[in-house]
Request: fold
Amino acid sequence: MGESEFHFFVLGPVRVRRSGADVVLGSPQQRAILALLMANPGSPVSISRISEVVWCADPPPSAANVVHRHIGAIRRLLEPRLPERAAGRWLSRSANGYQLDAPPGAVDLHRFRELVCHARSAGAAGRRVPAGERYREALGLWAGPVATGCPRHVTEHAVFAAVEMEYLQALREAVDVLADAELPEEVVSALREASGRYPLDESLLARLVLALGITGRQAEAFTAYESARRRLADEFGVGPGPELRAAHARVLRQTARSWGLVAAPAVAAAPVVRPAQLPMDVPYFAGRRGELALLLAGPERPDAPVPRVRTITGVAGVGKTTLATHAAHRLAPRFPDGQLYAKLGGSDPADATAATTVVLHGFLEALGVPQTRVPGTVDGASALLRSLLANQRVLVVLDDARDAAQVRSLLPGSAGCLTVVTSRHPLPELAVVEGTCPLSLQALSAAESRELLARRIGESRLAAEGAALDDVVEFCQGFPLTLALVVGHAALHPHLPIAAIVEQLRATRLPAGAADVVGTLGWSRVTRCGPAGRSAARRLARP
Reply:
């Protein structure tokens, strides 16, 4: 059977078509596995990642065997005449898991990405007409939310959420390219549908208001704006952000000109600045389910007060920054006006003294303030920051704070903003004055440590050296940084058994007080991570 006779669809209902007819895909778990492989066309997906998606991060002990059976069943669905235990044409096994071996043109997601890439290239070169055509083709491939037909916990997984974000970004870009030309009705319809699913995404709402106004539906545009304004006020107690207000103002001016009330076009508004400063999310995040739920929690009632500052405190190496970064990426869609991030250097008093001024200047610059307009005092710069963030919904992450005084100068005043602070110190002053939601982070449990190790070392090495995991867990005492050091050393020395690394660490362990003398290979920056971590850094630093 030729490759061209198969087509795979994940942008909407999960489907496979063979020779023009739909293939019956079997159980919800098989459908979820196939959707995950489609979301990573041509790339292997590990057994642990498949298990995480299928069983909502809580796989049974037999998960790997169940996944293997499901893969076999999917192969037989795709190729009914395939002999028992045969590999088949479409799903291949690698050291890291399974992958879908479909040609690029046979997977709708791959085709979508290719079209968007061509559209962006054409737009960057100033060729708006071909850019618009490619965007229209790309958007036309979408038939609904990603992986429709899979269980809800599957479609809400970060893998599919990321694909959904790709679509929303392409939709925004398409409107921006086509807004000065004839805006196609299918793009307006796509905006309506997306805005309905994401009713608090002001960038989508702004483009919907603008699209309705451009296509002559001013009354609908004003209704959409008013609905968004009321929703923001009811749920967050804030007004529309600058992007939504600018779209509304443009439709007002357009309407006034069409009625003969103004003689000349208004001056184009300045571009809206939406900072997105979060560092890269951790690809192997594990555990911390209760802590993450606390950080992501919203109000229990619509009228209940929500702490606008959330602190994560704990000893060095316990995973504060990792948790804050992971939670911030999950929270980011709730804050469409942007995300600000800064390291405050609180663990080094010399760095922390100058950090507040530097961070204030950096935040103001990210928000579009020229350096010549930044006040010369900390209080003045702090006041300007609060003014810029008034009535905005911005997420602020302050990593490694020294004390409450350092943090207060960087806090937004708007009720629509949220600040996440990490520190080695408890910061009780913030809890008293600012009403923070405090979280004291403890070491990982043994189960969470094993989960982290399993994700980091990969399926093939786990199968070969899984017995050494308990020794690593015992030695590292639940410190994520220590676990990362051991696994990192194992990755640099793939032929050195993990059990041998642990034996070396145990046999040569030095007193904790000698940790600060370690400077070889750059480990001195990561040695303050608990007794096990200090010893691990010292021992692994040696060639």
